[in-house]
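Blackboard transcription, Thursday session:
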Amino acid sequence: MTPKNPPPLNTIFRFTVIGLVVAILATAFAYVGGWLDPGRLTPDRMINTLEDNAGVHEGYRRNHAKGYCVVGSFESNGNAESLSRATVFATGQVSPLIGRLAIPGGNPHADDGMPPIRSFALQFELPNGEQWRTAMNAMPVFPVSTPQAFWELLQASQPDPRSGKPDPAKMGAFFAGHPETKPFLAWVKTARHSSSFVNVEYNSLDAFRFIDAGGTTHFVRWGLVPEAPFTPMTDAQKQDPDFLSHDLRERLDKGPQRWHLIVTVANPGDPTNDATLAWPADRRQIDAGIVTIDRAQDQADGPCRDINYDPLVLPDGIAGSDDPLLSARSAAYSESYNRRTREEAESATSSTQEPRS
Amino acid sequence: MNPRTAVTFSLPARLLHWLMAIMILTMLFVGVGMVATVSERHVWLVQLHKPLGIAILALVIVRLLVRWRYGTPALPADLPPWQRHSAHLSHWMLYALMLAMPLIGWTMLSAGGYPVTLFAGVTLPDLVSPSPTLYSALRFAHTWLALSLFALILLHLAAALYHGLIRRDGVLASMTKGRRKP
Ligand code: HEM
Ligand code: HEM
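(Written on the board underneath:)
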């Protein structure tokens, strides 16, 4: 059959069909990409809010901006081998580490004496190209349990342009509307600033899954317990905005610093999706081995600079849990990483190296 | 023009075409969706994105071999030259992007210092050593070439429907059906 010229009306109809198919597909794409959905909490918006609070400091992390690279190793004693088949836990296995000690907040020039919290991020290098990355905070619980609440907390803590400090009324309203912050607030009241990065305990806070050789899943949290005893920040240290790095270098000049990697195993029914809730103190704890840090380096040219300590970069034998913060962290850290590597690339290629504000 | 003189695409070519059409559209939607949410969808979409993208890389190689081995049916002789040229150009651009997108994805992750993990325990080798400059260039290219690929697919789809609904010249049928019965 030879096709005849279709009648004009029919042709218009057929062109309309084609147009509609294309339009529907394009609209669906735009919707999925968030372009038609201004209310969606995207990684972009999360990072914009961090930038609203601290300003844009090109090339720096959008949170935990002030920090130092450290290098060392983890030696497994085999105690966690029965819980996770990850090679990092094999008896005697030594994994090279690139770490980062930091303080929270988006200002890379912040005063070390301000926040009571320190953070420790680690990248364990495993055989066969696998890695385990973790970013831990020195606190027992996280203030909020969902990305949405974290975003609202960031908005509530935006500094007032006049005082340069968060508006207490907004903060108060946020905490009043978020009773899950109570355990965190109770801790903050009693928290003492440490004199050092190396004498505090760091915590994964989010729960993860360990998968053993038989395929059985165990819910865990992990942390680092220091060998150096806790001492509080001294009055002399309060005068030095960079006392944590000065202390770190002094201690490393004397010798390596060590922590025990402690894995806490959940009992059935313990919350795995809520980082505001600590597990009861009697839960089984396993000392999995020793983290040793030998030297520190400035983050501007150190090996931790271009690492994104995405908590979901995990080896076989470790997996994420149903904690909703994990996915949000992974998404937001990536956006922060994209921005800071782009800025690094731009400043590396620009001939005039003027500092930008 | 008589559509019967146009030979259809070979069966492997047709199967690969439709399988990859679904996979690539899925990849594009998964890609823009996963970077636009902090919800738990983000993680599982990323976990789907990487192995599916590498599968596309493997399939496009097979597909190019099939194309080279079996050839393609001729376009209708009465097709205006500009449409013929656009068709050929756009097809080669589609192949180039199908090949480039997964390679960029893989290289980009290597340049960012990330392990390229497809499944638990399956990690691809690094293609390059870590470099923030390279990472950032490739990350930029991954987005903009993906958007170009989507635009090109819309154009391709519109052209296919134009052949199928308006010209009705057998070009669409050459990819949807086997050889017509005489
Ligand atoms: C939804 C909640 C959270 C968001 C949006 C968020 C956001 C961020 C961002 C954007 C960075 C900078 C990443 C980079 O550029 O590499 C960062 C760093 C960090 N975050 Fe979070 N965070 C969240 C929750 C948490 C939690 C629950 C912890 C608890 C352990 C944590 C610990 C850290 C640490 C230790 C770092 C520093 C990593 C480093 O030294 O590179 N964060 N966070
Ligand atoms: C046909 C192949 C592919 C297509 C069509 C595709 C498409 C996309 C799209 C549309 C995005 C979102 C870009 C944006 O909106 O900024 C994206 C992001 C991404 N793609 Fe692909 N992709 C492909 C292959 C791959 C492969 C093979 C890998 C890695 C093995 C990969 C890794 C990634 C990653 C990691 C991101 C997000 C990075 C971030 O968090 O910033 N892609 N991709």
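Lecturer's comment: The two ends of chain B are 15 Å apart (CA to CA).
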